Amino acid sequence: MKIKAHAKINLGLDVLRRRDDGYHEVRMVMQTIGLCDELSFERTGQGIRIVSDSDAVPLNEDNLIYKAASLMMEEYGIKDGIEVRLEKNIPVAAGLAGGSTDAAAVFKAMNMIFGLGLDTTELQKLGVRIGADIPYCIMGGTATAEGIGEKLTPIKPCPKCRVLLAKPEAGVSTAHVYRSLKLDEITHPDIDAVISGIESGSIKDVAANLGNVLESVTVPENPVIDKIKKIMTENGAMNALMSGSGPSVFGLFENEEDIKRAYGILNESGYAPQLFITEIFNDEQ
Ligand code: ATP
Questions:
Q1: Closest atom, ligand 1, to C-alpha of 244
Q2: Which of 39, 109, 224, 285 has an alpha carbon 20 to 30 Å from 18's alpha carbon atom?
Q3: CA–CA dist 72, 179 (Å, integer)
Q4: Side-chain-facing half-sphere of 164: CA atoms under 13 Å
Q5: pLDDT higher than threshold 80 for residue 206
Q6: Closest among 48, 266, 61 to 164, alpha carbons compared
Q7: Can you tell me which atom of ligand 1 is nearest the CA of 37?
Q8: Do residues 133 and 94 make contact, with C-beta atoms less than 8 angstroms apart?
Q9: Ramachandran bin of 131, using left for φ above 0, alpha for ψ from -120 to 50, beta for the remaining angles
Q10: d(CA 245, CA 109)
Q11: Would you place residue 284 in the very low, low, confident or very high pLDDT band (cuts 50, 70, 90)?
């Protein structure tokens, strides 16, 4: 069995408050993009084995694939094993939910392979035990995420456009970014404006209102992010933003020539060793 595990970007990301338990209450607009990992699954005698073409991810029990498979086995008394082959295309530690989307693929695949008959809500309940972004990755598409990211509301699919994705060299720790966020100093993005842009079918309105409070931490620590955003917007992007806790930057483009030119310039600049031309991805595509 083969599954494509798509990356996500945040069209909006706001942090409302820090809870007593240390988690943060967020309000985000999540969007699946075309860029994806590919996972193939095979039922085996026993145990969990992960094989990958990437040396950027652990292949042991630290991998979210392992954690998801192990939780499924424990919870449903599965005695047989599973081998997972991971073709890693999504940059790691990049704000693109690469690990969470792989874990989501494991929940979906094992549900089918072992005939568990679980529905999406049940899979999401398992997923949140491993990571707050996993319930969204199980569902995909365009959605708002509230609470710690697990309270999901699907909204109208975001209008399609081309997306230029740039991942600078640096890796970013999500925990560090949230810890360093100065909640009393940030300017909150207009998440409602992003949502109404989506609902009225205007990608221009969506682009005009992109905002991510976590830029206030990650950008000063990685000034290359601003340089990448500038190249994108000077070369035809409607707008550009950092995704999640970064350091990935995405630019939204309407015009194919523009995105190719921006790609070429960024490629030359050396600012982002990983560069992808992809698109807003919704299920009906
Ligand atoms: P998010 O946007 O959810 O914060 P991210 O895109 O910033 O996630 P990931 O790519 O998920 O970050 O990687 C975060 C950490 O998780 C890395 O240090 C990596 O070693 C670890 N990890 C565990 N399993 C995986 C996996 N299957 N793919 C990628 N990273 C994984």
A1: 2
A2: 224
A3: 31
A4: 31
A5: yes
A6: 266
A7: 28
A8: no
A9: beta
A10: 28
A11: low
**C-beta atoms surrounding 19 within 10 Å:** 11
* Three-state DSSP state, 273: coil
Q: Rounded CA gap, 99 and 56, in Å?
A: 11
Q: What is the pLDDT of residues 243-269, one digit of tens each?
A: 999 999 999 999 999 999 999 999 999
Instruction: Decide if domain 162-279 falls under CATH 1.10.490.10.
Output: no
Q: Whose CA is nearest to atom 15 of ligand 1?
A: 93
How far apart are the C-alpha atoms of 134 and 122, rounded to whole Å? 12
Q: Which residues are catalytic?
A: 8, 133
The answer to whether the beta carbons of residues 86 and 57 sit under 8 Å apart is yes
Residue of the nearest CA to atom 4 in ligand 1?
95
Instruction: Find, among 79, 120, 81, 124, the residue nearest to 100 by Cα.
Output: 124
User: Which pLDDT belongs to residue 150?
Assistant: 83
CA of 101 to the centre of ligand 1 (A): 9
The ranges assigned to domains in the chain are 2-154, 162-279
Q: Whose CA is nearest to atom 25 of ligand 1?
A: 99
3-state secondary structure of 248: coil
Q: Do domains 2-154 and 162-279 have the same CATH topology?
A: no
Give the bridge partners for 142, in sequence order. Answer: 31
Dihedral (CA of 50, 55, 61, 63) sign: negative
pLDDT 10s digits, 66-113: 999 999 999 999 999 999 999 999 999 999 999 999 999 999 999 999
> Distance of CA 213 to CAs 126, 193, 236, Å?
29, 15, 24
pTM of the full structure: 0.95
Fold of domain 2-154: Ribosomal Protein S5; domain 2 (3.30.230)
